[in-house]
């Protein structure tokens, strides 16, 4: 069996992070086909006896899609306003698609301070366990409308790694718009080679050259690698897959598509 199917098959608790670039189309609007397909695959995982938490970006792009203005505003209050509007749109889409499978979703919005404060972190953990034990799929995002720079986590790769550790997830699956980690930036280089297995992050970093952050999302490949480090330090693994590709989790399990696995702990 390939490492991705091995990991997913042997995991019971799975956090799936979905990036803004996965959820948006070329015009920056929400790609509902992609979102629907991911929901279908989450349903498959649950039918296979697994528990799933989603960490979803996309409040900003959904806000632009809903209100059709302010996309170029850089002022913090407008960005916060867009996320306040878009978070509702985003959750409506999740609610609608999960309802096809009679699954409820629960929204949790977090800031860095929530995760740093042990009392709040414990409460979040309890809420997550309760939701999941009761069959609900929690959908988590940063609380962008209150997260000014000082209290911001800033990117959902890091947020998803913290959530995975807080909930003791067996694996974190990060869905991005790239196939995995390459030795060079595949967007600017032709012969970039996919690195399928990572066991040591420092030696990985000494071997690769990292390109620029993509247009819609906050986190570039460096953020994903550091998220993997956080999860690996906790003894768990992370899988980076291209969430724009249809049925990517199913095909990762069947071995038809690859990505990068960052191994943590004993295998
Ligand atoms: N929380 C932001 C949003 O929902 C995205 C952060 C990220 O892309 O990492 O728009």
Which labels suit this protein?
single chain, eight-stranded mixed beta sheet, Carbamate kinase, two-stranded antiparallel ribbon, 11 helices, binds glutamic acid, 10 strands
Topology:
Elements: H1 3-10, E1 13-18, H2 20-23, H3 32-47, E2 51-56, H4 59-67, H5 76-99, E3 105-110, H6 112-116, H7 118-133, E4 137-142, H8 156-166, E5 171-176, E6 181-182, E7 194-195, E8 197-198, H9 201-207, H10 221-233, E9 237-242, H11 248-254, E10 260-262
Parallel strand pairs: 1-2, 1-5, 2-4, 3-4, 5-9, 8-10
Antiparallel strand pairs: 6-7, 9-10
This protein binds glutamic acid (GLU).
Summarize the entry for a quick read.
This protein is α/β, with parallel strands linked by helices and 267 residues long. It has a single domain (3-262), classed as Carbamate kinase.
Low-confidence stretches: none
* Biggest β-sheet strands, sense, barrel: 8 strands, mixed
Between the first and last Cα atoms, what is the distance in angstroms? 13 Å
Structural domain count: 1
Ligand set = glutamic acid
């Amino acid at each position: 069996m390939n490492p991705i199917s091995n990991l997913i098959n042997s995991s019971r608790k799975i956090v799936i992070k979905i990036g803004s670039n996965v959820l948006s189309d070329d015009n920056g609007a929400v790609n509902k086909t992609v979102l629907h397909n991911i929901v279908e695959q989450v349903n498959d995982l649950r039918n296979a006896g697994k528990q799933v938490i989603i960490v979803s970006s996309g409040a900003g792009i959904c806000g632009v899609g809903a209100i059709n203005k302010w996309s170029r505003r850089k002022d913090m209050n407008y960005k916060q306003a867009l996320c306040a509007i878009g978070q509702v749109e985003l959750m409506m889409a999740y609610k609608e698609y999960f309802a096809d499978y009679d699954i409820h979703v629960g929204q949790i919005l977090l800031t860095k301070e929530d995760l740093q404060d042990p009392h709040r972190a414990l409460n979040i953990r309890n809420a997550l366990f309760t939701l999941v034990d009761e069959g609900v799929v929690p959908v988590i995002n940063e609380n962008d409308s209150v997260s000014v720079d000082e209290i911001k986590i800033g990117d959902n790769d890091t947020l998803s790694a913290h959530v995975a550790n807080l909930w003791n997830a067996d694996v974190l699956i990060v869905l991005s718009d790239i196939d995995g980690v390459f030795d060079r930036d595949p967007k600017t280089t032709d012969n970039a080679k996919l690195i399928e297995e990572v066991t040591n992050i420092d030696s990985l970093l000494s071997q690769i050259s990292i390109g620029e952050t993509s247009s819609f999302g906050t986190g570039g490949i460096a953020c994903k690698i550091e998220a993997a480090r956080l999860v690996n330090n906790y003894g768990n693994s992370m899988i980076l897959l291209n969430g724009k590709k249809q049925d990517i989790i199913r095909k990762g399990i069947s071995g038809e598509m690859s990505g990068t696995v960052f191994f943590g702990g004993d295998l």
